[in-house]
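Protocol step 4 of 5: obtain the predicted structure for the target chain.
Materials: sequence only (see below). No template structures provided, no constraints applied. The aim of this step is simply to have a reference model before the mutagenesis design in step 5. Sequence pasted as it appears in the construct record:
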Amino acid sequence: MIITRPRDWSRIKANLAEIGARSVFLVGCGQCATVAHTGGEQELLEAKARFESEGIAVAGWAVGEVACHLGGTRLTTRKHHGELDEADAIVVLACGAGVQTVADSTSKPVFPGLDSVFLGNVIRHGVFEERCQMCGDCVLDLTAGICPVTTCPKGLLNGPCGGMWEGKCEVLTDRDCTHVRIQRRLAEQGRRQTDVLPPKDYSKKLKPGAINLRDGRTTRSGGEGR
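Step 4 output (structure tokens):
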């Protein structure tokens, strides 16, 4: 899931002031932002109270099933067209993908209310960890399901740094070194990884990525597809 955090309030106000917005419509996300407690119903109501305390009217709000789904978001905007017409701008409490999807669904100015920070694993309720960078050149088959590039603070692909001490990470001193964990898990599985992993091929990460399941193509373009 995409982990987000609240955007600096002064920046949001500056965005609205730039266009002279006196009223807003708020959009949240029923998936990632709700789980992360940054863009669910409660957070939208809190944002509504804050806007109103600053003298900015809230014409309405909606939490769709998932903000980055274009069809669903367009349906949400149609359902709330009256409230949207009254708003000068839309503030989206969702990840960057959700913000762009909302912007594709309306002619109103759209501004982010959150910052996207990482792709997170849900460890337990309210606890998230970044474990994948979606690099397009996965080595998890060779590293016992532990990503060395993402979970090592220094992004080291091969082996621990010189600062590792007694199996602990030099940067996150309360954690075991990623490469120690990899070797330990491999040993527990009766496996070994002795070859040096080649430099990652970041050309395999599509920018902008697009997959069209309708015709089976993976392309670098497609961001404008509908």
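Step 4 remarks: Residues 221-226 have pLDDT under 50 and may be disordered. Helices lie at 9-18, 32-35, 41-53, 70-79, 81-86, 96-103, 148-151, 178-188.
Proceed to step 5.
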